[in-house]
Design a protein that fits this description.
Layout lengths: L1 H39 L5 H6 L26 H7 L12 H8 L6 H8 L18 H5 L11 H13 L4 H12 L25 H4 L5 H5 L23 E4 L7 H7 L2 E4 L6 H8 L1 E6 L5 E9 L1 H6 L17 H5 L42 H9 L1 H4 L5 H18 L1 E5 L3 E3 L2 E10 L13 E9 L5 E5 L31 E2 L7 E2 L1 E4 L5 E2 L7 E5 L14 H4 L10 E2 L2 E9 L6 E10 L3 H7 L5 H11 L6 E10 L5
Parallel strand pairs: 1-2, 10-16
Antiparallel strand pairs: 3-4, 5-7, 6-7, 7-16, 8-9, 8-11, 8-17, 12-13, 12-14, 15-16, 17-18
Helix pairs in contact: 3-5, 7-8, 7-20, 15-17
Amino acid sequence: MGSNSDAGDGRSSAGAVGAGDRLWLATSLAMLAATLVWFFGYADPGASTRQAGAEPGHLRGLDPNAGFSATDLGSGSAAARELATGVGGQSPAEGDASVAESAVAPHFMVGERCGLCHAESTRAQAMRDAGGESVAPFDLWSTSMMAQSARDPYWRAVLSAEVALHPGQKAHLEEVCTRCHAPMAGEVETSPAGQVLAFLQPTSPHADLALDGVSCVVCHQMTDANFGTAASFTGGFELNRDAVLYGPHADPVTMPMQRHVGYTPAFGPHVNQSAMCATCHTVITTAVTPDGTMTDQPFHEQAPYLEWRNSVFNNEVPTPAAEARSCQGCHMPTTDEQGQPIATALAHNPGGRDFPFLEPRQPYGRHTLVGGNAFMTRLLRDNAEELGIAAPQAAFDASLTAIQRMLQRETARVSIGAAVRESDQWQIPVTVSNLCGHKFPTAYPSRRAWLQVEVWAADGTLLLASGRVNDQGQLLGAGGQVLPSEFSGGQVLPHFDRIFESQQVQVYETVMGDTDGQPTFSLLEGAAFLKDNRLLPLGWRAEHADGPATQPAGVVADDNFTAGQDRVLYQVPAAGPPPHRIEVSLYFQSISPRHAAELFVHDTPEVAAFQRMYSRADHQPERIDHQVKTLVGRSP
């Protein structure tokens, strides 16, 4: 009995220990699972998620052609925000949306999936500046023109007009234009005959990729092959096909990204090189005659990279100047809005909490990607539902503020010199200085800047008004009449060295000429610039290797048009004694009324859609700078 009792006690003791072990093990596993969820943000979504009708881990839970619902608040998409608060969060291997994507292009993924870890979360400190403001890449990118490049109604309208004008070039136009505007659909077939951009329609299997524009994985999969050479321009970039995403920091932590989206982060310093931006922002076309015949004449439609390379801002040279900055240095600043350097962790886990093993990294570029396109930013915001844009209005408003801040602080300045009286006239010099690392304005030919100059006598008499506009943004001449230059087919304003009447306005712009030397507003017909008096960047040289491709046109006789600035002499009657009062403003438009008028003569559905949005838009131009001066004057 004793032995049995001992044996029984022993068995009871062993059983108790086993139960304790099992309890300890279960507890430990539960804690480990909880830790993994917190640590990596990964968990089975569970029955509650599925019962709620959510698609587990489906970060792309939006119709690509549908907008946000009224309940979608905050930054990023609704699905991205769900993941940031702990709903979902599964790897591609478990059957989420990336499987559907992989059937079309296994090396591509829409930006919302990047928002899994790179959108703002209120539960994390990652991706915040020193003041606690979010600098999450997905949120900043989502309202950029890069994110909306395929939804951009102006681009669609212009492309459709070019196809209507030259139907024989349809396949060529779509191939070239979608390479940069819809790069993730760039490898699919062109649209069927009679249709323009058919793969952007919701019925297309490629629509989700196409409509995501210049998405995260496009830039971060780009290799440095042929960087800075002609082979890389006009969308000649090369992407790796190994699911590798390049970033600017050495020794990245690879596991979370591999686990959740199937990509491997890698060190790629080339992502901070201007030559990367040049692959899409240097556009060289081949001129087509007005009757549609292809020539072999190259035309530099857009060349901000070449302009930058021919300036003091070029940091690709062996000994950069003190002013040298890359494209990213201005358009993806590594400082916050107060000018303080940003150092922060690069991601949070899919549950929206900080990864404890990620240390702050520096430099950290804000993915604002803003330029001067305030007009289109407003138009996209105000037509978001129709365009199927998911980003909220507040995000567009923030982007618009950043654009206007850049325009007012980093583009150009005006100054008023000393007036000189010569006989019965006052000579008033006005100088415009370019602060940009490229021409101002630069890139797409629809953009222009101009001087508005008003001079009053001491008794309040208006002596000169040049550059005034109406509520449609059209330039006005004598009697408040719209200048002919603002209408389709109207006479083009030349470059001026001296201005003495309201019909004369100094407009900094490009005017394309066709193969016959006539003005044209067809990009495909552009063979040379008849007028290019855009302000040259500081340090520009005619003898530079990029001098021929970036030289001005129509300013030969103006010795006051030099690298970095232009001086215009305004002549006004010497009515009575001084003082006189002069006000000078520099204005900018990303789409001039003339370019819009030339577009609206084409009858396509895309043009009609854009015209409808354009007609109800705010057409007030952006004021870059403003100076007021009382002129006492002096005799020569």
